[in-house]
Amino acid sequence: MDIAVVGAGAAAVGLLDTLAATADRPGTITVFEPSPQLWRGRPYGPDLDTVLVNSPPALMSIRHSDFGHYAAWLGPRGTAHLDERLGQPLVPRALYGSYLAHTAETASAALSANGWQVRVVVGRVTGATRRGARWSLRTQDGRAHEADHVALCVGGGTPRDHYGLDGAPGYVNDPYPLARALERVPLSSSVTVIGTGLTAVDVVVSLAARGHTGPITLLSRSGVLPHVWQRPLGHRPRQLTVERVAALHRDRGAVTLDDLVGLLSSELAEAGEDFGELVADLLATGTEDPVRRLRKHLAAVEDPGRGRRLLQETAHSVGPYAWRLLSEPDRARLLRHFRTATSVASPMVPVNAATLMRLADAGQLTVVAGVRGIEASDGGFRVHGNHGDSASDVVVNAVNPPPHAIPRAAGPLVTALLADGSAEPHPAGGLVPADPRLHVVGDLAGGGSFLTSSIPGTAARAAHAIVAPGPGQ
């Protein structure tokens, strides 16, 4: 059994870890990765120490169904990175990258001990064709590599240059790694950050850590900031669980969005909480002043209410499974609230929220909703907003690619797979394998939840690729 793994980020690590625990027949695994950041991917390479993992340890395990795997590895390492408000260790992303690398190396050693050969090819795969029962993969150097199964683990899409600013002095299209992207930004310059999500938060916090003194503007269509993580209470859901959702599907053959809402409502009722209050707070996401909302959420980090905590946990633990069972109309209903859903399910950590609050109170940070365009002008930029125009010295693009977008580097390979009929495009983006010997793991997988970049979702996809017909069987 020869398995080709294209890409060596978190998805590939989850795949190797699951294979090490389940594969019963020896073979070869060839991992193709052109980047020197083996096993870390784009998000978890070396960077500023202020660029933190944005989730508590329980939601960062790359081992499917073992929520304590990352926390156990972290151990005493987390003591120096304890967020006092959250009561959880929040480490630099580069340290989390070390966890991924350790997991991959441990899995590779276990596979080797069981008769597998694991090797890494430093190179980009540019094409793949089927030849009978085998695959032939071509790398950028023109070499061919044979395999029985191919797993695409190519990561998320490439940031888009929404306003055609590429090449303009002072424009940063891809902020990661922030250590490199911000090193030439003058400390006194005015900076406009396109986007108000977690990437934008990383940019602002990193600017502050460098001692930036100039004005900073966060600009997006909605102006919605991520929610703020609350201190974990140790309560485990009893109603809104994978088991309860699976039982509904088994008994009735269908699961609806109203079913999920009902389970959440029952969960809150058991805790003596008002479901209507949670709904009202969520509906206010797009209309309430973002700084006032940030202040409110920062003050509620230790609030005992369970509503947002339940949504944040179950969006990652139940969401990927439940999404596959929902009808297209129900999915469309959820997608109409995409910005609210992602701001709740992917909150910022309290220490970063406190930095944004400090900058806003000092008048250095402004959050603006509504943008009509940005153009390079006289060595700087002219920003056209719904409430007037403004000038900026530097523009940083912090808008993430849409879910299931194709990374630019993987474009030739995806084109070859589509032309060969080995894969089909999903209507909502991403790829769906048309051949059982092709597996798509991670953000590129078509038909997955829009919370595609979560580590639990990636781990679940990796485990599913192993237990489905294909590698390991």
* Quaternary form: single chain
Compute the number of strand runs.
20
Biggest sheet character: 5 strands, parallel
Range of strand content:
15-25%
Write down the overall geometry: globular
Helix percentage: 25-40%
Strand order of the largest sheet: 5-2-1-9-20
Structural class assignment: alpha/beta
Question: Which segments are poorly predicted (pLDDT under 50) over 5 or more consecutive residues?
Answer: 469-473
DSSP helix count? 16
Query: What is the averaged pLDDT score?
Result: 91
Distance between the termini: 10 Å
Q: Which radius of gyration do the C-alpha atoms yield?
A: 23 Å
Give your account of this protein's structure.
The protein is an alpha/beta fold and 473 residues long. 36% of the residues lie in helices and 18% in strands. It contains 16 helices and 20 strands. The chain has helices at residues 10-22, 69-74, 93-113, 178-181, 198-209, 242-252, 257-270, 275-283, 290-299, 307-317, 319-325, 328-335, 338-345, 350-361, 411-420, 455-467; strands at 2-6, 28-32, 82-83, 88-89, 117-121, 125-131, 134-139, 144-147, 149-152, 171-172, 191-194, 216-220, 365-369, 371-377, 380-385, 388-392, 394-397, 423-425, 431-433, 438-440. The strands form 6 sheets. Strands 5-2-1-9-20 form a 5-stranded parallel β-sheet. It has a 5-stranded parallel β-sheet with strand order 10-17-11-12-13. Strands 6-7-8 form a 3-stranded antiparallel β-sheet. Strand 11, helix 5 and strand 12 (216-220) form a beta-alpha-beta unit. The chain is globular. The protein starts with a strand and ends in a 6-residue tail after the last helix. Mean pLDDT is 91; it is low at 469-473.
